[in-house]
Amino acid sequence: MTRQQRDELDALLRGGPRDPRDPNPGPEAQRLGFAQAISRPAPDDVTTRRTEVGGRPALELEPAGAARSGRLLYLHGGGYVVGSPDTHAGLVGELARRARLRTTSVDYRLAPEHPFPAPVEDGLAAYRALLADGTDPRELVLAGDSAGAGAAIAVLLAARDAGLPQPAALAVLSPWVDLTLSGASIRTKEKADPIFTADALREYADLYLGDRDRRQPLASPVFADLTGLPPLLIQVGSNEVLLDDAVRLAGRAGADDVEVTLEVWPEVPHVFQHHYGRLDEADAALDRMAGFLAGRVAAR
Fold first, then answer.
1. Is 281 assigned a catalytic role?
2. Quick one: 3-298 is in which CATH superfamily?
3. Per-residue b or e along 79-110, where b marks 16 or more CB atoms closer than 10 Å to that residue's CB
């Protein structure tokens, strides 16, 4: 990453869409602002179509030259309050294109209208539907970013407990897996993080969980027993308050005998992969993640 790239990105993120007339926007205003800030179209060589999976709307992304086998199920980020397959079409399309995997991005229900565990239920329903449609779990991989990363892990915990087979691999970007906000980086990285503050994360957690126990495994998988989960790749930036979520998740996975790879990318922010094409690390990270996922499918 060049100094110019970093300075431009930091300025862009710190100057995100905020309406000074509305210092406490509701969920709908937050969703609009989030979409305006991060939405990018899918790559030209990735075909998209609306579909449904597990009773929920979804976006199907099929890259040109997609491998005959292999399927990616993706859960988008957004604090369980904002975001959609449309806001993530660029990021997910880039990952699908690089991995050459047909991909389904689920439009799971959002809080506060649909609080915990609605996103996990929708993700699990999508996973069940793919298996029921004949997808070989050895040719199925999962991925997600931020809250979607936490939901993806929770989906696999729920699938394990329901006796369903695990997929070939799981990759997560800047995972939010501790909704108690007990990681040290919530405080130590707050000045470096151009996106989040502890208060902002707490607001999302309040909308998602209300007065429910924030340590329960499907809400905060860093406190879960991860035994039996598939090989796991974790990517995180060093300039984000969720750094310790990723580090502790890797430690928990290793302690539970899960094959895990943790990549900490220096001086980049939360879900920096969104900035492919304008940040060198974003392209490099997506290539590494695509190789990991495609390699696990090919190794069956």
1. no
2. Alpha/Beta hydrolase fold, catalytic domain (3.40.50.1820)
3. bbbbbbbbbbbbbbbbbbbbbbbbbbbbbbeb
